[in-house]
């Protein structure tokens, strides 16, 4: 599995994820370390669930993830089309 990564914000070199910590079902902190020995920057970045693109078949009732406006718009269009077909 590939780890989500980004370049070092200072020197733009490759970074490695060193550890992660789950803070909630929707947010994780990831500690990155720059691989450029002249830079050596270590930093924490966040990985957050922002919106739903496809609804889960096994949803958790206590979890609220916003539905993408694009998905909501398409679903509304489908519903209105189905009303005319019936």
UniProtKB/TrEMBL annotation:
Report domain Zinc finger Ogr/Delta-type positions.
8-53
Name the species this protein comes from: Solimicrobium silvestre
Q: Output the Pfam families linked to this UniProt entry.
A: Ogr_Delta
Identify the InterPro entries for this entry: Znf_Ogr/Delta (IPR007684)
The entry's protein name is: Ogr/Delta-like zinc finger
State the organism's lineage. Answer: Bacteria, Pseudomonadati, Pseudomonadota, Betaproteobacteria, Burkholderiales
User: Which domain of life does the UniProt lineage start with?
Assistant: Bacteria
